[in-house]
Amino acid sequence: QFCEKPRFGGAFCVSCDGMTRALFLCGKARMRSPTAADLVAGWGIEADFAGLSADAEERVSAEQLQWAHLIFVMEKRQTKRLQGLFPGQLRGKKLVVLNIPDKFRYGDPALIALLTTRLRPFLASPLASDGPSG
Predict the structure, then answer these.
(1) What gap in Å lies between CA 42 and CA 56, rounded to an integer?
(2) Region for residue 92 given its phi and psi (left: phi exceeds 0; alpha: psi -120 to 50; beta: otherwise)
(3) Is the four-CA dihedral 122, 75, 29, 5 of positive or negative sign?
(4) Averaged pLDDT score across all residues of the chain
(5) Segment (H or E) for 39
(6) Is the dihedral of CA 133, 56, 20, 123 positive or negative?
(7) Of 3, 50, 56, 83, whose CB is crowded by the most CB atoms within 10 A?
(8) Torsion sign, CA atoms 66, 72, 78, 79
(9) 60 and 82 in contact (C-beta within 8 Å)?
């Protein structure tokens, strides 16, 4: 069920069906954003990922932006790039900069630990008190 106006409860956002939809963006959608999407999918969050570069594995689309309640970019400069690619598409969306540098491989335990820490304020994690498990 698609919900035009998601409800925000504190930092969390849920759709009419009770699911949070998070979109993770990085440059090429090869390392950071797929790791983030896979991580939060394990928390019961609907997640997708894409890249902002012309040569991204999966380039971000207007449909993905419409679908998402929360949009996470890895670096501050990606916010400006996203706004330039999709002017007007971000109205009413919560956009979060995670400040995660492009130095990690997909699934890197250090990346997972950093993502877990940075995402806790925005997404409910069943692991929030226990930390990530392997």
Answers:
(1) 24
(2) left
(3) positive
(4) 84
(5) helix 32-41
(6) positive
(7) 50
(8) positive
(9) yes
The DSSP call for residue 42 is: T
Quick check: 53 and 28 in contact, CB under 8 A? yes
Q: Which carries the bigger pLDDT value, residue 87 or residue 124?
A: 87
Q: What is the DSSP string of 49-95?
A: EEE-STT-SSB--HHHHHH-SEEEESSHHHHHHHHHHSTTTTTT-EE
Q: pLDDT value at position 92?
A: 85
Three-state DSSP class for 41? helix
Span 66-121, pLDDT tens digits: 999 999 999 999 999 999 999 889 988 999 999 999 999 999 999 999 999 999 99
User: What's the rounded Cα separation, in Å, for the pair 13 and 56?
Assistant: 28
* Predicted pLDDT at 109: 98
pLDDT at 126: 56
Helix then strand then coil, in percent of the chain rounded to 5, is: 30, 20, 50
Q: Tell the residue number behind the tokens 């335990």, with chain if given.
A: 109
